[in-house]
Fold each of these.
Amino acid sequence: MAEAELAVAQQVDDEAELVERTRAGDRDAFNRLVERNAQKVFRMARHMTRNDQDAEDVLQEAFLKAYRRLDQFQGDAKFSTWLTRIAVNEALMRLRKRRNDKTVSLDEELTLGDSPMQRDVADDGDDPEESYERAEMREILEDAIDALAEGYRTVFVLRDVEGFSTEETAEMLDLSISAVKSRLLRARLQLRDKLRRRLKGHGREKENHV
Amino acid sequence: MGVKKKITCKSFLDDMSNYIDGDIPQELRASLEAHLAKCPECWVLFDETKQTVEIFQSYNCHPLPVDVKDRLLGALQNQWGEPKK
C-alpha cells in the first residue's frame, strides 16, 4: 500500500467502519482489525491457558470465528469486546478440556516453551528495544500471574489487565458480581505478596524509563 | 445523610478493591480515607496493592511473537482460499 493510501486508511481506522468494510468484502479491513486486536487477544489467551500453543490456537480460532460470524455482530458492543468474548469462551473450553484430560500433568502445563525474551515480537510499537530490566520484570509479572489459581487468574486478567468492567467479567465467566469482586481482591492481594519486594524498585525504574 | 460507617481494618479490606477502582459511594470513600489517615498498616496494604495493579497495567506482558502473528494471517488467508502474499 502506498504511503498516501496508508495515511487515508488510518484516518478511517475506526472499528465500526472496518467491520462494515469487511462485511462488504474488504479483507484488508479485516486484516486491520487483526492488527489492532491480535496482541490483546493473544495476551489474554496466554494468561488464561498458561500455554503458548493453546494461546495461539485460541487466537486463531477467535479471529476465524469472528470472521465467519460477523453477521451476528450487532454493533451495540465494541468489536474488540465481542472478539474478546469469543476468545474467552475458546480459552475456557480448552481449560475445561484440559481438566478432563488426565494425560496432561501440571508439570507439562507449566512448561512454558521459549523465553519471551528470545522471541521476535510483533510489538505494537513504543518499546521496540525493551531494556533487559524491563524484560526481566515483565517475566516476573508473567510468572506471578501464572502462579495464581485459575479462578483468580482469569478474573484478574479480564479486570485488571484487559480492563473489562466487573459486570462484563461476571457475564463472560458466568459468575455473580460479588464473586468477581472477591476473586479480584484475593488475586490482587496474592500478587501484591509476590511482588512486594519489587514495588519500590518499580517506581524508580518507571521514572527512569519515561 | 446517614451515620458514618465505622471502619475497622477488616472492613477496610472488604472495601479496598472497590476503593482502588473508584467504585464506591462518596460517603464510604470519606470514611475509608479517614481510616487510612490514621492506620499505617492499612495504608501500606492499600498503597502496595494499588501499585501492584498499576505495574501490571504498565507492562506489555506476553508480547505477540512475530511467527504467531504470521501464522494467524496465514490461517485467515487459507480460510479465504488465497495464497499468502
Amino acid sequence: MISGLMWTGKTSPREPAARVWPLRLAGWLTLLGGMTVTAGVQAAGPAEDEHFGVPQVKFINDQIAAGWVDGGLKPSDQATDGEWCRRVYLDVVGRIPTLVELKAFVADPSSTKRPDLVDHLLGEDFVDDYARHWTDVWTTVLIGRDVENEMVSRAGMRQYLRRSFSKNIPYDRFVEELVTATGANANRKNVDGFNGAANFLSGKMEENGIQATAKTAQIFLGLQVQCTQCHNHPFNKGKQNQFWELNAFFRQVRALRRFDGTRDIQWIELVDEDFAGESGNAEEAELYYELRNGLMKVAYPVFVDGTEISRTGYVPRTLEGGEKIGAHRRQELADLMKASPLMPKAIVNRMWGHFLGYGFTRPVDDLGDHNPPSHPELLDGLAERFREQSFDLKELIRWIVLSRPYSLSSKASKGNQRDDPSLGEKPKFTHFYLRQMRAEDLYESLLTATEADEARGGEEAAKKKDEWLSQFIIAFGTDEGDDSTTFNGSIPQVLMMFNGDLIKQATNTGKGGFLDRVAKSDMKNPAKITTLYQSALARSPSAKEISAANDMLAARKGDAIGALQDIWWAILNSNEFIINH
Amino acid sequence: MSSIFDLPTGMNRRHFMSHLAGAAAMAAPATAFTNTLLANATDLKKRHKAAILLWMGGGPSTMDIWDLKPGAPTGGQFKQISTSADGIAICEHMPLMAKQMHHMSIVRSMSTREADHTRGRYYMHTGYVPNPNVEHPGYGSVIAHELAEQVSDLEIPPFVSVGSGSVGPGFLGMTWAPFVVDSNGNVRNLDMGIDPTRLDQRLRMLETIENKFIGEKRGGSAEDHKKVIDKTVKLMTSKQMEAFKVMKEPKDVQEKYGTTGFGRGCLLARRLVEAGVPFVEVDLGGWDMHADIFPTLADRKLPELDKAMGALVSDLADRGMLDDTAIIWMGEFSRTPNINGGGGRDHWARSWSMVVGGAGFKRGVVVGETSSDGKEVVTEPYSSQDVMASVLKSLGISLETTFTAKNGRPMKIANSGKVIKELFT
C-alpha cells in the first residue's frame, strides 16, 4: 500500500498541504508506472515549417529563417518536449512545471500539444501564476528592485499590475493608465481614490519630473533621452530640446504628500493642476532649460515625432459661458504614444528579449537610430501585427513561444556555433540562448519543485519573496534610484544556493515534506532518483548520473532519505537547474 | 576520484580536504582559531601590488572639494585651506585629508563627455563608452586579472566591492566578477552546516551534473557557473575569510576611520589588501546633489569622506603599504559650476578633478588647471582612459597588454589611454 494513498482517508480539511498531496503522488505513480526512464528526452518536436495555423508565427519563422540563409547558418535541432515545456512554463508563468504537468505534456500524443499547452498557460487555469509572474517582471521595470520608500508603494504597484495582467488589459490601455494615473498610491482603509498605477510616477516627480520624462521615454518608447537633459547627445540624434519638450507634458502633475495626522508621509496623491508656466502665463505655459553655454531656452509640449499640442497650462474645464478651455497634457501624451509606431516596437522588442534571451537591440529599451536592430523587418512587422491585434499581450506571447526560434535546442551545432551574441555579434536565433533564471523565477521554481506551492500567491507571499530578494539588491547611490543585483551568477548567489535558508527548506527531510514523501513512496530507488531529476530538470538521469547517485546511497550507508537529500541538493545547485535552456 | 573540480590554480582533493578541516575548526573556540591565523599571518603578508578605488557614486562636486574657486560667481560657499603638500589647497571641510596631501596628487584637468549616471559609471570604470556589442571589464576585473598571479595562494576573491556593485567583468567572464559585500564585511550564507566529507560527496554528485550539461555545448554560461562554484568552495573553506571581519579591529582603529559605512569600508579595504586581495572598491554614494548642495556637503558628506579617506591614507603609509597600494578617488563625473535655483549643482563632465596616490605615483602634486570659473580645462585635458593607463602603470602592469574579447577581437588594456606624465616624472 502506498503511504500517500493511505493518507487520503485520514486527511483533515484543516491540513491543506496533506489534502493536495495524495492526489499528486497518486498522479505521478500512475504516470511513472507507464513510462520508461527516458521519458521527456526524446527529440520529437513539430516539423520545421510548422506554424500551427497562426500567420504571425509563420511570419516570424520566415523572417528568422531568411536571416539564417543570409548568414550562412543552420539552425539547431528542436528542443526536446521536456526542455520546451520547462522553458515555456518559466517564461510564461515564471516557474518550472510540476512533475504532473511535465508528464502530462510529454505523454500527450496530440500533434497540437504545443499550442494546447500555450492556450492552457494563457487561459483561466493559470491566470494567477501568469499575473504573479508578469507583476514581478513589470514591478522591476517600472519602479526598480529596491524601491519601497515614502514616495512609492510597492504593494500598491503590484496590486495594480496583478489586476492588469489577470484581466489581460490591452497594452495601449496599460500604458495610458500608467502615464495618466491620478489618485492615491497606497491602498489604505481610510484613503479614497486608490490607484496603484500612480506608483509608476509618484516617485519620479522630483525636480519637475525629470525621471518621469526619462523613464516614460525609455520604457514605453525605447528612447534613451536621459543624457539629453543636459546637452545634445554626442552619438545619437537626441537633442536637448526634445527632452524638455517631452518634459513639458509632465508639468501639470503634482505628487502631493498626504499625512493623515502624523508627521510621516502616509500616502502620495497624484493630481493634475494648472501649470502657469515659468513666467506666470497659463495660456502659454512654458518652461526654460539651460544650454551648456549657460543660455536659457524655452520649451512647450512637443512629442518626440514633432507633434505639438496646445500650449495652455490649464487643465480642462468648462467656463461659465460653456466655453471649454485647457488641455490635459498627460492625456495628450498618452494619445500620442498610443498612435506612435515606437510604442508597439518597444514592447515587441522587450517581449522578444524576455523569451529569446536577446532582443533585436541591446539594450532592449534603446531603439534609437544609433542602435540598429538585428531584424528590422521582423520588429516592424510584429509591431504592426501587435497593433492590429488590439495590443493583446497574450497574443504576442503566443506568437513568440510557438515560433521556431523559440522551439530550438540550446545545443549549438557546427552550422551555428558562431552565432553567439555573448561574443558581441548580432543574434541570429539559430539556437536557444542560455540565460539564468531571474531570482523571482528561482524562488517560485523551488516552491514548485518541492511541491510547496500552497505558500504562493497574495500580497503576503509577495512580501516574503521581497524580503528574500532584498539580499541580492545593490543600490548605486544616485538620485535615479538605479540598482543592480548580485543574483547574477556570482559568488553570493552560489553561497545562497549552497547554504541559504531557502535551500535548507527545499532540501529538508522533515515528515510530510517533498523528500520524505519521495523516500517513503513505493518506488524503487532508480525511480525515486528519476522523480528528483524530472521535478527539477524535466529530464531523466543518465546512466552515469544513476551510478553517481548509487554511490551516494552507498556513502550514506542505507540512509535513503539522507542520500536523496544529497542528490537533491546537487540537482538544485546545478547549472542545468538555474539556467533556462 | 582524484579531483573535485578542476580549479585553475590546481586545487586538488587533498588540498580541498585540508580546507574543509580548517573550516570545521571554525566551530572550535575563537581563540584557537585566532592563534592559527596569527601563525599564518606572515605568509599572508607577502609584498604585493594592489589598488583601492574610492568610488563616489552620484558624481561629487569636485570644485567644492579639490579645485576651489573662491570669489568666482560659481565658487560656492567654501573656503580653501593649505595642506601638507606645498602649494596645494583644498576644501576647508577636509582638514584630515589636508594633512595627508603629501601622499596624494590631484588631477584637475579631467574632461569627459558622459554625464548620465549609468553611462558615466561604465565609462569611468572601463575606459570605454557603452557599446551594445561588447561588455568591457572594469578596473577591478582588469587589475585582479593582471595581478592574480602574484597572489597565487589567495583563496578569497581578487576583486571585492564594498557597498556597491561596481562594474562587471565584461568579456573577462564571471570568474572576475566583483565579490560584493556590505561595509560590515558580512558575507551571507557561509555556514554549510554539514560535515566536510558529506559536502565533498555532494560536490562530486554536483560535478557529474555540471559536466554533463557543459559537455552538451550550450554556451559559456554553463562553464562559468562551474568556475564560480570552484571559487565559492575555495572561499567557504578559507581561513583568509577572517580578513572580512572588520569589526574585530581595535575600537580606536575603528574610531579613527569613522563609524560610518564608508569608514568601515575603508578599514575593510585595508584588511583585504593586507590579506592579499589585489583590488578593492569602496563605494560612497549620495553625491547626486541637485539641491541644497552646500549644507549637505559641509554637514554630512565631506566629514564622512575626510575621516575615512584620511585614516586610510595615513594607515597605509604607517604600515608601509602605501608604496605598493594605489588609491584612486573619483566618481562618474562632477557637477555644474553654475549653481541652480535649488541651491544645487547638476551633472557636469567637461571639467573636473580626481585624486590618486600611493604605488608608483608621484605624490603631492597638482596636474592641470581649470579656468577661473571652473567651466573649462585650460591645460591638456585627461580622460578615463588616461587615468586607467596611469593607474596600471603605477602598479607595474604593462600597457602593451592586450585582451582578446570573446569574439576574437583584440582589445588594448585601458583603451590605449595615455599615461598622465606629470604623475610620474
